[in-house]
Every structure is written in structure tokens, then in C-alpha cells.
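Hey L., structure's done. Input below.
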Amino acid sequence: MNPSGTPNTRGLRWRLQSVPDPSGDGYGRGVLHRGDCDVPGGGWLGRRELEIALDMENVTPCRRCRPDQDAL
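Output:
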């Protein structure tokens, strides 16, 4: 946290992992991770891409690293 009480996200990067549909019948989904999350995979995103991805209905934040907390 910085002195204003907001998360210090300067220099942070995030990843968007593609998770295929297990049935193979539909579209997969995306899982957002912080760059330092121990879950592997995903392409790198900047802050703007993080904000866009968080608004997408088929993208969810990782429950371990909670990248959605960086966007507050």
C-alpha cells in the first residue's frame, strides 16, 4: 500500500491464462494472475489490459494471487 491507502501497483505485471473448455464443445475461459503467481502460463498484460480483462464475463481472477485487488 502506498501512503494514500491504495495498492502500489507500479511495476506490476499480470498474466492472462487460457483454460480450454473441458468438454470441447464451447469456448474456454481466461484466468488472470499476478506476474509473481506460482500458477504457470499465460501471456503478459499491462494495467490497461488488466482492467479490460476484469470486465470480461469469461475471465476470472486467480483465487491464489487475487489480481483483482490490484485494480482497486
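Residues 1-8 have pLDDT under 50 and may be disordered. DSSP finds one helix and four strands in the chain.

-- N.
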